[in-house]
Amino acid sequence: MHAIGFTDHLPIEDPASLRDVTISKPSAQGHDLLVQVQAVAVNPVDVSVRKTGHEHRMRPKILGWDATGIVTAVGEAVTLFQPGDHVFYAGSFRRPGCDSAYHLVDERLVGHAPATLTTAARAAMPLTSLTAYEALFEQLHIPFDPAKPNSEKCNQTILIINGAGGVGSIATQLAKLAGLTVISSASRPESIAWTQQHGADLVVNHHHDLVSEVHALGIKDVDYILGLSDLDSHWNEICTLIKPGGHIASITENRRPIDLKKLTKKRGTFAWEWMYSKSYYHTADMISQHDILETIADLLDRGLLQSTLSQTLRPINALNLRQAHQLIEQHHMIGKVVIEGWE
Amino acid sequence: MHAIGFTDHLPIEDPASLRDVTISKPSAQGHDLLVQVQAVAVNPVDVSVRKTGHEHRMRPKILGWDATGIVTAVGEAVTLFQPGDHVFYAGSFRRPGCDSAYHLVDERLVGHAPATLTTAARAAMPLTSLTAYEALFEQLHIPFDPAKPNSEKCNQTILIINGAGGVGSIATQLAKLAGLTVISSASRPESIAWTQQHGADLVVNHHHDLVSEVHALGIKDVDYILGLSDLDSHWNEICTLIKPGGHIASITENRRPIDLKKLTKKRGTFAWEWMYSKSYYHTADMISQHDILETIADLLDRGLLQSTLSQTLRPINALNLRQAHQLIEQHHMIGKVVIEGWE
Predict the structure, then answer these.
(1) What is the pLDDT of residues A2-28, one digit of tens each?
(2) Which residues form the Enoyl reductase (ER) domain (chains A, B) (predicted)?
(3) What is the Cβ-side half-sphere exposure of residue B177, based on CA atoms within 13 angstroms?
(4) Which own/partner pairs from A328-331 qualify as long-range (CB within 8 Å, at least 24 positions apart)?
C-alpha cells in the first residue's frame, strides 16, 4: 500500500526528506481498528520527529498523527466500532503514523467522526482537540460539563499564549464553552483576527512584554495560563501574571532551567500536557481519549465548536506532505493544514 | 500584655534568642477577632523565621502560627464568631504571631475549636491540618467528600515523604479518610511506629533509595506524591515513582534547580503548598481556611481524626518556647509540641 515516510533526517527542501513508499498493509488484531485513511493533518510534532536525529533507518518511518477515515476491519477485542464507521483520531507515538492508505489504531484512542463536517475539516481536529481538552480540563482542572457548554459565564480568566495556533484555536473555543474570559496572545493582524473569530475576548501581543500587555487591559492577574509556545521566554511573565492558587500548563518544553520557586508563595500549580502520554504508557484511563473525541464530535455537530482547518492540499503524497511541513516550519501557520485523498 | 519575641537572629542556645516581652494589647476591628490565647504550638516555620536574617529589630517580632483560645472581642464586620467562642487557627504570615496573651486574627482564618479535645491537643492541629488538607484536596486534587469520610477504598496510592512529621501525621490520616493506600516514609523505629499508628498502610525508609523501597513493596508507581522534606534529594525518585498523569505536591522549596522536564512524557503535575498563601495575598477564597478548620474540628470530634500532639510544655514563656524551638531544630520531632497556659 502507499505510504509517505523517511529514512534520513533531511531538510524539508531535500526531495528525499519525505518519500512516497510502498509498505505492506497491516491487519487488525485485539483492540485495533484497520482504518482506510481519507485525510491527514500535519502538526509541529511531525516536523520535530522528521528533523531531529542523525541516524539512517533501514525501513522508512511513517509520520502522521491526525487522521480521518473509514473502519474496514476490527480486531477480536473491539467493542466500540464496526466496519463502515467513519472515525477520527490522533493515535499513538509508539506506532507507525497515519500517513498511509491504511492504518492501525487502538479503538480506545478513536472517536466517531463528526457527521456534519467535511473530510478535511474532520482531519484537522483530533490531535489539537485532545491536547486542548486534556490541558484545560484534566491538567488545569477547569470545571466543565460537556452536557452544559456555554451555559454560564464564570468569573475566571485564562491567558492562552499563542492562541492562534492549532491547539490555541481549539483551546480558545473550549475555554469559552467553559465560561471563561479568554485572553489570547497573537502578533500579526491575520492571527489576531483568527483568534478573535475563534472566541478570544481580549488579545495581547506575545512579542511585547505580556505583563504590561495584560495590565494594560486592566487585568492584574489570571486564574489559568496555557503556554503553547516558548516556555523559556515567557516563564517570568507567567509567574507574575498567575493568580495566587492559579494553575499553569504547558505543551512546550523548557530548554533552560526554569525557576519553579517563583511560584511557592502563590502556591502555584504547573502541569505538562502531552497528548501521547496515555497511549505511550498504556494508562488505565487511555479510553478517556475515545470519550474526549466523542465529546468533541458532538460539540462540532452541534455547531458549538468550529473546525480549525485553514488549508487543504490534495492528494496525499510526498510532495504535498513536504509542502505542509514547510508551512509548519515557517512558524506562521494559522489553524491547521490538511492533506486529503489519494491519487 | 505578656508576649515572647526576638529582636536579633540568634542561636537558640542564646537566652536572648527568644525573650519575654511586654507589648500593648490590640483591639479588634473589621473582620478581626481578639483571642485570649490558651495554648500555642511551634512549627518549623517559627525556627526558620527566628534563625534567618541578620538585622536588628527595634521592636520585638512575635512568632507563633498555631493557637487555641477564647474570643474576647470582635470587630464590627465579624459574622462567624462571638465573644466566648473557643477557636483554633494558624493565622497570617503578614501579622504578629500568636505567642502572646491576646492575639488578633481575621475570622476567615479561624475555626471553632473541636469540643472533645484538650486545650493542648487543639493547639497542635491548625497549621498542619490546613497544610495537609490544602495539599491533598486542593493542590493534588484528590477527590474527598468530608461528609463521607472513610466511606470507600479507592484504587489509588499516595507516597508521603516524611510521614511522621507534623504535616505528615495529618496528611496520612486525611489520605486514609479519602480512601487512598498510604505509603509513608520514616526511618527510626519510633517514627515508623508513629506513622503506622496514624494509618500508614506501608512504610519506606527515606534514607535509602525510595524507588527501590517502593518497588520492594511490589508497587511500581503511585498516583500522588506529597513531599514534606528535602525536595532536592528526592526529586529524581519522585519523577521515577509518579504514575503517568500523576500529581506531585511539595511544601519544601528546592535549593538546587530541579529538572521539571523529567515529567513531560508522563504529563505530570507539580504544585506547591504554602498554607499562608491565601492570607498573604488576601485571596477571594481566603474563607476556605475557616471551612477547612470547621471540617477538621468535626472530624476530630467524630473521632475520625486524631490530634498529633506528642509533647506539652507549661507555661507559655521564653524558656519553654526556646525548648520547643530546640526540639524542632534537632529534626527528630515526631508529631507536635505545644506550650500551654500562662504563669
Answers:
(1) 999 999 999 999 999 999 999 999 999
(2) 16-339
(3) 26
(4) A328/A42, A328/A43, A328/A44, A328/A46, A328/A47, A329/A12, A329/A47
What are the chain A neighbours of B262 within 8 Å (beta carbons)? none
Helix axes B288-301, B126-133, angle to 10 degrees: 110
What b/e sequence results for B156-186 when a residue is b if at least 16 CB atoms lie within 10 Å of its CB, and e otherwise? bbbbbbbbbbbbbbbbbbbbbbbbbbbbbbb
Contacts of A278 in chain B (CB under 8 A): 244-245
- Chain B CA closest to residue A275: B267
Which chain A residues are Cβ-neighbours of B285 within 8 angstroms?
Answer: 245
| Nearest residue to B92 via CA among B318, B286, B303 | B286
Q: Which three cell numbers stand for residue A300?
A: 462540532
In terms of C-beta density within 10 A (0-12 exposed, 13-18 middle, 19 or more buried), how is residue A16 classed?
Answer: exposed
Q: Are the C-beta atoms of B114 and B300 separated by less than 8 Å? A: yes
Query: Shortest CA distance to A225 belongs to which of A195, A287, A268?
Result: A268
> Which strand ranges, in their side-by-side order, compose the sheet holding A19-22?
A19-22, A2-6, A61-62
Taking phi over 0 as left and psi of -120 to 50 as alpha, with beta for the rest, A307 belongs to: beta
Rounded to an integer, what distance in angstroms lies between the CA atom of residue B87 and that of residue B74? 13
Mean pLDDT by 10 residues, chain B (343 residues): 97 97 97 98 96 94 98 98 98 97 98 98 98 98 90 87 94 96 96 95 97 98 97 97 98 93 97 98 97 98 95 98 95 89 92
Q: What is the ipTM of this complex?
A: 0.93
Q: Which residues on B lie below 8 Å from A245 (Cβ)?
A: 138, 277-278, 283, 285
Q: How many CA atoms lie within 13 A of A310 on its CB side?
A: 23
Determine the residue type at B6.
Answer: F
Q: What are phi and psi of A89, to 5 degrees?
A: -170, 165
The three three-digit cell numbers of residue A88, written as one number: 477520527
Catalogue all structural domains in chain A, each as residue range(s) with its CATH number: 2-125+285-340 (3.90.180.10), 129-272 (3.40.50.720)
Alpha-carbon span A284 to A291, nearest angstrom: 14
Label the pairing between strands A157-161 and A222-227: parallel
Burial tier of B37 (Cβ tally within 10 Å: 0-12, 13-18, 19+): buried
φ, ψ dihedrals at B134, nearest 5°: -65, -40
* Contact residues, chain A to chain B, C-beta under 8 Å: 134, 138-139, 141, 243-245, 253-254, 257-261, 263-274, 277-278, 280-281, 283, 285
Which residue in B245, B246, B242, B247 sits closest to B220, CA to CA?
Answer: B242
CA A261 to chain B, closest CA, distance in angstroms equals 7
- Nearest to B182, CA basis, from B216, B222, B211: B222
CA distance B160 to B198: 12
* Chain B residues closer than 8 Å to A226 by CB: none
Are A283 and B253 within 8 A, CB to CB? no
By a Cβ cutoff of 8 Å, what residues of chain B touch chain A?
A: 134, 138-139, 141, 243-245, 253-254, 257-261, 263-274, 277-278, 280-281, 283, 285
CB contact under 8 A, B277 and A266: yes
User: What angle, rounded to 10 degrees, do the helices at A44-51 and A318-329 form?
Assistant: 100
